[in-house]
UniProtKB/TrEMBL annotation:
Name of a matching Pfam family: Glu_synthase
Top enzyme class: oxidoreductase
Required cofactor(s): [3Fe-4S] cluster; FMN
Organism superkingdom: Eukaryota
Entry keyword Metal-binding: yes
UniProt key word Amino-acid biosynthesis: yes
PROSITE patterns: GATASE_TYPE_2
UniProt family annotation: Belongs to the glutamate synthase family.
Region of interest (Disordered), residue spans: 1-42
Entry coiled-coil feature ranges: none
Name assigned to this protein: glutamate synthase (ferredoxin)
Bias (Polar residues): 1-21
Gene: PLEST008435
Example GO BP: glutamate biosynthetic process
Length: 1632
């Protein structure tokens, strides 16, 4: 079956209902302050590489073999004189550039097949091609739907095939290169000449060239443009070189060729000369191909003489639509599925240590092997480069991957008990090599061994099976050979890789090893424990860690210092003191609506010019609380040693458990002789032009000299001298100093010789700490934060509050401890939102983007950071630092810190775009509380308010410039057409009140727009039209609303599917016009949402299938989206269940969003929503509100430009939100590329919000954001108020279009050329450059056509066949019973989801009284049985992949192994990861093991499995899980409801439970016993499980081996608590 993704662009109209209403008077756009025109706008660099000219260069080279026939050609030395290979250039480390890194993101399907006995056969190759074909859905294609993003095979060298053409080949002494060359005769000849010249110089012999036979016709249009000429080169090593030595020689040759080509080829063609492999053992055949055509493109692969004992196969999904042939995989050693989140840091650390990598095996030639990495390549390619160096140096590939991708070894119960030496191994290498962290299934081979390894968090699926005839198969999915039934009696074992696990087949020794044995073998080769004892000290070894009991300064001095470094009053009270008091980061609400730091006229600390990056779509965030076992804050101080020659003297380091040092700890580090620590004061001469830059330069050279002299730790300190603060010496912003020194040391190749510690007053929030570490600091002593905590505790104000019982009575030490703890927790959260587990990986990774910093600043201190709008120069920063420093020297003594108003609105503080004045003006205009009497004059005042407001967002610096004369307004499309493009943001019912939520929905339905349900499901009563509205506008059905009309409906046309999956049922999905997958949210991208317990009323709890008063937490990651192909799968699921609902994906603006959006478009989304950073009504940590996510203008412009460039724009509708408040915002959004517009906070204001900003407390005074009955009674809004507002906005848009001479939004959408940068005099800098926003991406089609296109479909489906059966449909419609059987293969994804959807459409979630009984035979694809519903009873004979029963709501699924399987079910993995995710009912029985995260977020389903992986029952809120075998770690993390029963046969279970929330007990009640026994009986009945039968046969003994998980919500249930009387009705045991 062709499972290729399709994008449908069919015409068709699905206009929403809208009630036409008479137009309100026209409201013209109020112009902003006079604006000038920018003289020179940079034009788009729409990079389209010209195809090389097909010129026929006259060259005396061998005649080229025809592409259809392969011949080895003897080498004729060409006449063309080519420069000799370049000498290794002077060492010049290149820092990784984030812009380059962002251009390539991918994920994939991968696997290998190997004959353990090393028997070569063509069958292996054929099977690999078959498997590749069955993983097409894990890859993607370019916009032509034909050019694959990449697919390929790695095999042994096909000697038999090659020898047919060149019989004299000696396998032992020959290497084969697979070479891509530019498609140009002259360049091709030059490439060959370069290689031959290198070989000649190196003393190895080129035996010949072989043109690889290919079929160009199967290559897609996009791929053909860059299709290379493909040759194989045969090279004989130096005399005597065989085996590993020959491999090393060939590696050197390849590296020399790479240097030579870069030196000699024109720069734009150099990347096209690429050696896929050059090896005597392995070869890679790959290209920009779809899986299905790999075999037909490379004719060799279908040649029966092509034999290999193993094959690695790989199918790539690149978010980029112009992927490159060389980036197809496998690479030279690895095939990778996933994404390395820490790439920029890894690349910088590689560059830093390249010069000191050496091993005698290289005979002094190490410098010829560098540079190792290249940011322009993919993460996989770079990891492969490092792994290859290690392997060629002599490391086993298993060892190389263990140290590059370490498992979470700390407190790992199995390692602690059984493999302590493995812990020593990991700990030792931590001092030499930071991890490459992120989702990763890595399949590897060096030609002798083939294996696979999974990342520390187990974020990619990996299944393996072994046959009687000693074949090993590893794959992202089972079923890829379609032989699960026919080959059943041959399969002796089925397993899966868990987090950090590995398997390896050694072809030379014919052994197959799994994790434990491999790790032990590797870890016992060297005395790592001894080496550690010699090389590593703990911080405690340097001295005692103590808190200061007394303040360092008097309170006046502290106040001056606080003011002088930029701390404001709210920083002190809301941030530092709050952290000192509570130990957690403070939260706030209503988003960030103050000007960007560069636009503000208030002085800002340097940190405020940066935004944190976060994971979305291509990689997942991590939950730092529930999955904290994979995370660590450990850091090392001291030089790093030589990775290539580890030993006892590799390093002398000090281990820190946390990067946040106490003052006493800093003291110990500063005086340590072994580290040779040196301290440097970071000050500059205030008031002297250029002194900041001069001081930075001097600092860098001073540090360099110290490091060259052996200093292994540098302390950069802004601590005032004992003599006190000096007005003439201002501190260099610590972040600037750290960044400058870090980059200077990289440039001088000294970075890994020393550590940097920041001793700074400027670090007092989590964002500050994360930034300092992200830009290079190993550790921080935030001394002013400690001092503020101390003085807060000792102040008389705090003493009084303690006495009054308003503040807990904590000690001075505890206050400091809390402050430190809160920074640590916050840093963990910040790195987890990027999906990074280890601080050592985050260190130096620069995962931030700058908004408002000029090139000179970035080049000197933050090189490689994305900074697209220019801004502050070093001179500007000096002025800003001086203006702050002066505040520390006031004329009159200070009594308090300045109220900057950055968080809360203050009378003289910073401007807030959402403010009480604008709320009042808007309320007046729309007639709130005044019978919805619209007042156009008042709306003008509302517009005028914004026209006169300070510049706050980037669009305030833009103006319209038309190329047409104005037209009469009646020629412009009507307001109704414009309003159809309006939506409201995904505000959840729960965060806002029922009144607000429903009023908004009714208003949007009236205007033909769309409201958004937000997270948490929706009350089915809202899907009906009102028919009982009286003359007063009241309805008995919804008595809490006013201003109603008959025909109104409160359904949300957009229904959200977020990570929590509360209330997402088949019926909910079937009642949506659109389904929105919320990947990230504006206020806190990369973090989960939280509904405080006090807001979970009985009504909210019922909708969300939870309990009143219990807080509801959405995890940061969707547990079914760990990569782009996972997102594609969720889109597929939703299209499967409801093929009529468009699927939108909500992203948050950040650099790189364009490439992500391309991936989302390729993943078949219908709509992409781009949100700005400023949105968000709910509670969020202040640092997230302020410092994560980018401006919506930047995200929108990048998304639109990238989609246009990649020919994907017509596939998707673009929707934008982020502080849209008026017609001007709408029109600007349109010019930047948006088709539709989302309104968030302003919609709440239009229902009555007065901007009191206490939404997160449940105390909203006007009932807009409260669940308290008495406050909700005050709700003032009516639907028509909102309708008035949207009408005003639409009229404003019309007026502006008329002024510009355009008739419709269609005509201007994407016309960034109609925008110009205004000449706005900013207070701080002249360096702002908005050319990125005014760049015209090129023509795109009509927006209305995009909006009207039909829903993208999934193509032909197994479900369609089932539903085409008349008996099945009859049973569904008439509620009868039917029984049917079908075959299934792994490309049948989301099977039965559509059947469930049809049942839900007819009968709702619970109304179906019939039975549809289906037996399926084979391998179920991903999401088997998703959204299963009552009455659907399924038996799968075979096996299944990830997400079985996702969103299951009812019915039953039973999965059994094929008959005749020789393995024990309890030992075999039968289903994959994340099964039962978000289930809301039904029963699942699996006669085999499940993977990771079994039953995550299950709220009602019951299940029995025979074993499970890590994180079982995670976040469960209800239902029951029974596990009849072993489980992995972290059971029950975040489990707040439901029950779990676990059979514990070896006494290891309790160590694996996360007991943060749940208790563990034996089964102590008869109700509990009956519950358990009933489920096991049902399991035995449905699956025939031998284990279940054995347990039941000896029930009394069996019962004693079970543990029961008890979350607090269940502790008073009869199943748990013997003292609870069982109600009569409940005494019926669950039965089969
Ligand atoms: S009025 Fe209510 S909804 Fe508006 S900001 Fe205040 S608490 Fe939030």
């Amino acid at each position: 079956m062709d499972a290729q993704l399709r994008a449908q662009q069919r015409a068709g109209s699905r206009l929403d209902n809208s009630q036409q209403r008479p137009a309100l008077p026209v409201v013209p756009t109020v112009p902003r302050a006079p604006a000038g025109r920018r003289s020179a706008q940079a034009q788009a660099k729409n990079v389209v590489r010209a195809t090389a000219a097909q010129s026929g260069a006259s060259r005396a080279v061998a005649p080229l073999a025809a592409s259809t026939g392969a011949l080895c050609q003897p080498v004729l030395m060409p006449e063309v004189v080519v420069e000799p290979a370049a000498e290794p250039s002077a060492y010049e480390p290149k820092v990784a550039d984030m812009e380059e890194i962002l251009a390539e993101r991918d994920a994939c399907g991968v696997g290998f097949i190997a004959s353990l006995k090393n028997i070569k056969s063509h069958t292996v190759v054929k099977q690999a091609l078959t498997a590749l074909g069955c993983m097409e859905h894990r890859g993607a294609c370019s916009a032509d739907n034909d050019s694959g993003d990449g697919a390929g095979l790695m095999t042994q060298i096909p000697w038999k095939l090659l020898k047919k053409e060149m019989p004299q080949l000696n396998e032992l002494t020959t290497g084969v290169g697979m070479v891509f060359m530019p498609n140009n005769d002259e360049l091709e000849a030059q490439c060959k000449q370069i290689l031959e010249s290198v070989c000649a110089k190196e003393g190895v012999k080129v035996l010949g060239w072989r043109k690889v036979p290919v079929d160009h016709d199967v290559v897609g249009r996009f791929a053909r443009v860059t299709e290379p000429r493909i040759w194989q080169v045969l090279i004989e090593g130096k005399p005597g070189q065989v085996g590993d030595e020959l491999e090393r020689e060939l590696f050197v040759v390849r590296k020399l060729v790479e240097k030579a080509k870069n030196a000699q080829l024109p720069v734009e063609f150099a990347p096209d000369f690429y050696l896929c492999t050059l090896s005597s053992r392995t070869i890679v055949y790959k290209g920009m191909l779809r899986s299905a055509v790999v075999g037909s493109f490379y004719r060799d692969l279908e040649n029966p003489d092509f034999e290999s004992a193993f094959a690695i196969y790989h199918r790539r999904f690149s978010t980029n639509t112009t992927p490159k042939w060389p980036l197809a995989q496998p690479m030279r050693v690895l095939g990778h599925n996933g994404e390395i989140n820490t790439l920029q840091g890894n690349l910088n650390w590689v560059v830093s240590r390249e010069h000191e990598l050496n091993n005698p095996i290289w005979k002094g030639r190490e410098s010829e092997l560098t540079p190792l990495c290249n940011a322009a390549q993919s993460d996989s390619a770079n990891l492969d480069n490092v792994a290859e160096l290690l392997v060629r140096t002599g490391f086993d590939p298993q060892e190389a991957l263990m140290l590059l991708v370490p498992e979470a070894y700390r407190n790992h119960p199995d390692l602690v008990k059984e493999y302590p030496e493995v812990i020593d191994f990991y700990e030792f290498y931590e001092g030499l090599q930071e991890g490459w962290d992120g989702p990763a299934l890595l399949v590897f081979s060096d030609g002798k061994r083939v294996g696979a390894r999974l990342d520390r968090n187990g974020l990619r699926p990996a299944r393996f099976w072994r046959t009687k005839d000693d074949m090993i198969y590893v794959a992202s999915e089972v079923g890829v050979l379609g032989d699960v039934i026919s080959n059943a009696d041959n399969i002796v074992a089925k397993g899966r890789l868990g987090p950090g696990q590995m398997v390896c087949a050694d072809l030379e020794k014919a052994t197959f090893m799994e994790t434990g044995a491999i790790s032990k073998m590797v870890a016992t080769r060297q005395p790592y424990k001894e080496w550690l004892q010699k090389g590593l000290r703990r911080l405690a070894d340097l001295g005692e860690s103590t808190f200061l009991n007394e303040p360092m300064y008097d309170s006046a001095t502290m106040l001056r210092l606080q003011a002088a470094i930029g701390m404001g009053a709210e920083d002190a009270t809301m941030v530092v003191e709050s952290q000192a008091q509570t130990g957690v980061e403070p939260t706030y609400c209503m988003g960030d609506d103050i000007p960007l730091a560069v636009l503000s006229d208030k002085p800002h600390m340097l940190y405020n010019y940066f935004k944190q990056r976060f994971a979305q779509v291509t990689n997942p965030p991590i939950d730092p609380l529930r999955e904290g076992l994979v995370m660590s804050l450990e850091m090392r101080l001291g030089a790093r040693g030589n990775l290539l020659a580890p030993g006892a003297d590799s390093y002398k380091q000090v281990q820190l458990d946390s990067p946040i040092l106490l003052e006493s700890e800093l003291q110990a580090v500063a005086s340590d002789k072994t580290l040779g620590t040196k301290s440097f004061k970071i000050f500059f001469e205030a008031g002297k032009e250029g002194s900041l830059e001069a001081a930075l330069r001097k600092l860098c050279t001073d540090v360099e000299a110290a490091v060259r002299a052996g200093c292994q730790c540098v302390v950069l300190s802004d601590r005032p001298d004992a003599s006190g603060m000096d007005a003439g010496r201002a501190p260099i912003p610590a972040l600037l100093a750290v960044g400058a020194v870090h980059h200077h040391l990289i440039r001088t190749s000294l970075r890994s010789d020393t550590s940097i510690v920041a001793d700074t007053a400027t670090c007092f929030s989590t964002h500050h700490a994360a930034m300092l570490i992200g830009f290079g600091a190993h550790a921080i002593c935030p001394y002013l934060g400690y001092e503020t905590s101390r003085q807060w505790r000792l102040s008389s104000r705090t003493q009084s509050l303690i006495k009054a019982g308003k503040v807990p009575d904590i000690s001075v030490q505890a206050a400091q401890k809390n402050f430190k703890k809160s920074l640590e927790k916050g840093v963990l959260k910040i790195l987890s939102k990027m999906g990074i587990s280890l601080l050592s990986c985050y260190h130096g990774a620069q995962i931030f983007e700058a908004y408002g910093l000029g090139k000179d600043v970035v080049d000197m201190c933050f090189r490689g950071t994305v900074s697209r709008i220019g801004g502050m120069s070093l001179a500007d920063l000096q002025r800003e630092a001086e203006s702050l420093w002066t505040k520390g020297f006031p004329e009159k003594a200070m009594t308090k810190l300045e109220e900057y108003g950055f968080i809360q609105s203050r009378p003289k503080g910073e401007y807030h775009s959402n403010n009480q004045e604008m709320a009042k003006l808007l309320h007046k205009a729309i007639g709130l509380g005044n019978g919805s009497q619209a007042n156009p004059e008042a709306y003008k005042a509302y517009q005028q308010h914004f026209a006169e407001a300070p510049v706050a967002v980037l669009r305030d610096c833009l103006d319209f410039k038309s190329d047409r004369a104005p037209i009469p307004i009646d020629q412009v499309e009507p307001a109704a057409a414009i309003m159809e493009r309006f939506c409201t943001g995904g505000m959840s019912l729960g965060a806002i009140s029922r009144e607000t939520h429903e009023t908004i929905a009714i208003a949007m339905n009236r205007i033909g727009g769309k409201s958004n349900s937000g997270e948490g499901g929706e009350d089915p009563t809202r899907w009906l039209k009102l028919a009982d509205v009286d003359e007063a506008g009241k309805s008995a059905s919804v008595p809490h609303l006013r201003g109603l009309r008959n025909g109104d409906t409160a359904t949300s046309k957009i229904k959200q599917v977020a990570s929590g999956r509360f209330g997402v049922t088949p019926e909910y999905i079937m009642n949506a016009d659109q389904l929105e997958i919320k990947v990230a949210q504006g206020a806190k991208p990369g973090e989960g949402g939280q509904l405080p317990g006090q807001k979970v009323s009985p009504y909210i709890a019922q909708l969300r299938r939870s309990k009143p008063g219990v807080p509801l937490i959405s995890p940061p990651p969707h547990h079914d989206i760990y990569s782009i192909e996972d997102l594609a799968q969720l889109i597929y699921d939703l299209h499967q269940v409801n093929p009529k609902a468009k699927v939108s994906v909500k992203l948050v603006a950040e650099a790189g969003i364009g490439v992500v959006a391309s991936g989302v478009a390729k993943a078949n989304a219908d709509i992409i929503q781009v949100s700005g950073h400023d949105g968000g009504t709910g509670a969020s940590p202040i640092s997230s509100i302020k410092h994560a996510g980018g401006p919506m203008e930047m995200g929108l412009a990048e998304t639109h430009q990238t989609l246009v460039r990649n020919e994907l724009r017509e596939r998707v509708v673009l929707r934008v939100d982020g502080g849209v408040r008026n017609g001007r915002d709408v029109l600007l959004g349109a010019l930047l590329g948006a088709d539709e517009f989302g309104f968030g906070t302003v919609a709440m204001i239009a229902t009555g919000c007065i901007m009191a900003r206490v939404c997160h407390t449940n105390n909203c005074p006007v009932g807009v954001a409260s669940q308290r009955e008495e406050l909700r009674a005050r709700f003032p809004g009516a639907p028509e108020d909102l309708v008035n507002y949207f009408h005003f906005v639409a009229e404003e848009v019309r007026a502006s279009l008329a002024e510009m001479g355009y008739r419709s939004l269609d005509e201007v959408i994407g016309r960034a050329d109609l925008l110009t940068q205004r000449t706005v005099k900013l207070a701080k800098t002249d360096g702002l450059d908005l050319s990125f926003l005014t760049t015209f991406a090129g023509a795109s089609g009509a927006s209305s056509v995009r909006r009207a296109q039909e829903v993208h479909d999934n193509g032909p489906q197994l479900d369609d066949r089932i539903l085409a059966d008349a008996e099945v449909m009859d049973a569904i419609v008439r509620q009868r019973s039917v029984q049917k059987a079908f075959d299934i293969i792994n490309t049948d994804r989301s099977a039965l989801g559509r059947v469930a959807g049809v049942i839900a459409k007819h009968h709702g979630d619970n109304g179906f009284a019939g039975h549809v009984r289906l037996t399926l035979t084979g391998s179920g694809g991903q999401s088997f049985g998703c959204f299963c519903i009552k009455g659907l009873e399924v038996k799968l004979v075979g096996e299944a992949n990830d997400y079985v029963g996702k969103g299951m709501n009812g019915g039953e699924i039973a999965i059994v192994p094929p008959p005749g399987s020789p393995f024990r079910s309890e030992d075999a993995s039968l289903v994959g990861n994340t099964c039962l995710y978000g289930a809301t009912g039904g029963r699942l029985f699996v006669n085999g093991r499940a993977g990771e995260r079994f039953a995550v977020r299950n709220s009602m389903a019951e299940a029995v499995v025979e074993g499970a992986g890590d994180h079982c029952c995670e976040y469960m809120t209800g239902g029951c899980v029974v596990v009849l075998g072993s489980v992995g770690r972290n059971v029950a993390a975040g489990m707040t409801g439901g029950l779990g029963y676990f059979l514990d046969e070896d006494g290891s279970f309790c160590d694996k439970v996360n007991t943060e929330i749940v208790a563990v007990q034996r089964v102590v009640t008869t109700a509990g016993e009956a519950h358990l026994k009933g489920l096991i009986s049902a399991h035995a009945d449905r699956t025939g499980s031998a284990k279940a039968k054995a347990l039941l046969a000896n029930w009394e003994a069996s019962l004693g081996k079970f543990w029961q998980l008890v979350p607090p919500a269940e502790k008073n249930t009869p199943e748990v608590n013997p003292s609870v009387v069982v109600p009569q009705a409940a005494k019926v045991a669950v039965t089969a």
